[in-house]
Specification:
By secondary structure, this protein is mainly α. It has ten helices and no strands.
């Protein structure tokens, strides 16, 4: 069996995964924002993306299955079908549209929304459920195009679910669906090679440990604190996408 990491890389990767999944345990999204860019300093893109997708799916299943009773399945019924359609549409858009412009547009939207959310505080206006399919469509397309599908779900659910347990449980189940599609695509494309699976086995315990810690922290955070944390993550994701748009070398 080939070990995909040397010792220094493994130590760094283990620390990154633990920290990233503490955040995931608190908010139910955002881990890939930290794991993928950090690991790309040491490992090739075609290794990092499939392995991180596997770890994301394991973490989302651990969180989503455990708290599925708190999920709002009526919201998921509106989001999931259009998310699948968005993922299919994203494959077409990936070829047809200028990728840098799309990334810059999404990044700018997330930055503006996150700054708005941080400024407004805990007060959240409830929106119509009719926005659920829109969020699903955009999230599915973004997941296929950029590997960042959660923010549209976050924006919608923040304006629909005012209970933090229901919010996290519902979001984590959407993440399960989104990441599962990515794993299937990587498998069908031949990217799930043995060394990726070995890397997954070596790092998933650290991700699950971080998930456990994040879950404990989540229970001690107020709704206002959670919303600020979510807005902060959206801000980071937005800036990350802007950096990818204006630094083409980072797109791989």
């Amino acid at each position: 069996m080939t070990i995909p990491f040397d010792l220094p890389t493994f130590v760094v990767a283990a620390a990154v995964f633990t920290g990233a999944y503490i955040i995931f345990g608190i908010s139910a999204f955002g881990a890939a924002l930290f794991t993928v860019p950090a690991l790309l300093h040491f490992l090739p893109l075609d290794f990092v993306l499939p392995m991180c997708a596997l770890v994301d799916m394991a973490a989302a299943l651990a969180l989503g299955v455990r708290f599925s009773r708190d999920a709002d399945w009526s919201e998921l019924k509106w989001m999931v079908p259009l998310s699948a359609a968005g993922a299919i549409a994203g494959v077409t858009l990936l070829v047809a549209l200028p990728r840098h412009a799309i990334i810059a547009g999404i990044g700018a939207f997330l930055v503006v929304y996150a700054l708005y959310a941080l400024r407004r505080g805990e007060a959240v206006r409830t929106v119509s459920r009719a926005w659920g399919p829109v969020a699903g469509l955009i999230g599915g397309a973004c997941g296929t195009l950029f590997g960042v599908g959660a923010p549209p779900y976050v924006v919608y659910l923040t304006h629909r679910l005012h209970d933090k347990l229901a919010f996290r449980a519902t979001l984590s189940n959407m993440v399960i669906f989104s990441v599962s599609i990515r794993v299937v695509v990587f498998a069908l494309s031949g990217f799930m090679l043995a060394e990726r699976l070995v890397g997954f086995v070596m790092l998933v315990p650290f991700a699950l440990a971080g998930l456990w810690i994040g879950n404990r922290i989540h229970g001690r955070i107020s709704r206002a604190g959670l919303l600020r944390g979510v807005a902060g993550l959206l801000l980071l994701i937005g800036f990350s996408l802007l950096a990818r748009a204006f630094l083409p070398a980072t797109l791989g």
